[in-house]
Specification:
This protein has 15 helices and twelve strands. It is of the alpha+beta class. It binds a DNA duplex through helix 3, helix 8 and strand 9.
Length: 437
DNA sequence: TCTGGGGTCCTAGGACCC
DNA sequence: TCTGGGGTCCTAGGACCC
């Protein structure tokens, strides 16, 4: 590849790559409809935690004009008959794993980019269209989920192609951007809004429009240095990718996690310290469990709480407290103690709290554990066996069977999930057959 | 009444060092 | 009168993604 002087700050990958981006259509809504046939071909929305806002829509719901992240109470007022489901992440995660197993087997290497998307490396595939059609029908037949495939010589172009495959049904769910003539490609990019390019969000779109960049074509044709001076290297890279210069490589191994967040809005607002403490301790327990599952230790812990910023009739308060653990740890009780200390530091009487959470950072692999100088190693060993037992019991009998006492029994703050579907694929008791009886 | 949760990267500016 | 310059590290904030 010839390096262009104008692009000195953008790293290239290689000139002979080809990507297929496979993506499940309306993933959460489609998962729900796999098991409940009464939902098929109906307007259906899936809601965020607390049934707060819309996070997935079936094709029919999209046709009604329902937007992503629209508050549910507003949508329901407009469409009283609309079918809705609370989000069921246990189901979606399991369905995702099944889809990814099938798709990653279809190419020599791949990158799971999100819960419902995967990039396949198809540079040496002789017939790209055949591969795309094969994986499409395979996922449909074996899992029951519809997918679309976009093909491009950069990730950004594959994303664009995937978008075309989804929006224009005449292409049968597969679109190869690299099969177009230069004139056709320009024409297509002229029809695509710059905000629909991967990497251009709402803020950037607004700024670019002021500068006269309105379509994907405008961005592709813009001078690289001009983009750099008016925006950043990130957008410069996106524009290069649109031109067919691959800058974003396939990540073959999952990048090392840098932080871990567990936070939730409350089902109803909380003013008592005890209730806040219960919620914080339960989130910290969950975070510690995740650490152990992933074989990580955390050195820094942050606790945060805040009131509902949408309410202008109440005084607002938000605070966070961050502390460094004496040694990096994955111990539920050690983290819970630290969390209580942090919460006491930031709690203020007289506010209605809406959300709390914890963030663990400065993560290191558990294999590199550094012990404290004056702590008896057998005590650490005992504590680690206790945590392992905790995890085993909770895995066997359901989350929170055994938990930190302070995390609550009543749990008045817990989420609203009025319409949550069964965990069809991960709980024997929820199996579709068992339920039919 | 009701407004998600969990991530990453880049940049600018301040602190600090020699 | 004139008050360095270059480097690193950290943090907060802004932007993006799904």
């Amino acid at each position: 590849m010839q390096r262009s002087g104008a692009l000195f700050s953008v790293r290239f990958v290689s000139s002979d790559v080809m990507f297929a981006l496979v993506d499940v259509n309306n993933f959460y809504a489609s998962c729900e409809a796999v098991f409940d046939i009464s939902l098929r071909n109906k307007p259906l929305v899936v809601l965020s935690n607390n049934d707060g806002c819309v996070i997935a829509r079936s094709a029919e719901a999209k046709a009604l004009g329902i937007q992503m992240t629209e508050p549910w109470h507003q949508v329901r007022a407009r469409h009283p008959q609309l079918i809705h489901r609370s989000s069921n992440y246990e189901l979606y995660a399991d369905m995702s794993a099944r889809v990814m197993t099938i798709l990653s087997a279809a190419a020599p290497s791949s990158e799971c980019y999100s819960i419902d998307e995967i990039f396949l490396d198809i540079r040496n595939v002789p017939d790209r269209m055949q591969l795309a059609n094969t994986v499409r029908s395979r996922v449909r037949e074996w899992i029951g989920l519809p997918v679309c495939v976009g093909i491009g010589c950069t990730k950004t172009r594959a994303k664009l192609a995937n978008r075309v495959a989804k929006k224009r049904p005449q292409f049968g769910g597969v679109f190869d951007l690299e099969a177009l003539t230069p004139a056709e490609l320009s024409e297509l990019m002229r029809e695509i809004d710059v905000g629909d390019v991967w990497g251009v969000g709402s803020r950037l779109k607004a700024r670019l429009e002021v500068l006269g960049i309105r379509t994907a074509l405008d961005l592709r044709n813009a001078d690289s240095e001009w983009i750099r001076s008016h925006s950043s290297v990130v957008l410069q890279r996106t524009a290069a990718e649109l031109r067919g210069i691959a800058c974003i490589p396939l990540e073959l191994t999952a990048p090392v996690r840098k932080q871990l967040v567990v936070s939730r809005s409350f089902g109803s607002e909380v003013d008592r310290y005890d209730a806040l403490r219960e919620s914080v301790l339960s989130y910290v327990s969950r975070a510690a469990e995740k650490l152990r599952t992933e074989g990580l230790l955390a050195r820094r812990m942050q606790i945060f709480i805040h009131t509902n910023s949408f309410r202008d009739d109440r005084a607002q308060y938000s605070a966070e407290f961050s502390l460094k653990m004496p040694v990096a740890t994955d111990d539920t009780l050690a983290l819970a103690n630290a969390a209580e200390y942090a919460l006491r530091r930031i709690f203020r009487e007289g506010f209605l709290y809406q959300k709390a959470g914890t963030m663990l950072s400065e993560l290191t692999p558990a294999a590199q554990r550094q012990h404290a100088l004056f702590v008896d190693p057998t005590q650490i060993e005992r504590r680690s066996r206790l945590n392992a037992t905790l995890d085993k019991i909770n895995q066997l009998y359901g989350r929170d069977t055994v938990r930190v006492a302070g995390s609550g029994v009543e749990r008045t703050w817990s989420m609203r999930r009025s319409q949550v579907s069964p965990r069809y694929t991960t709980r024997w008791s929820d199996l579709a057959v068992a339920r039919a009886r």
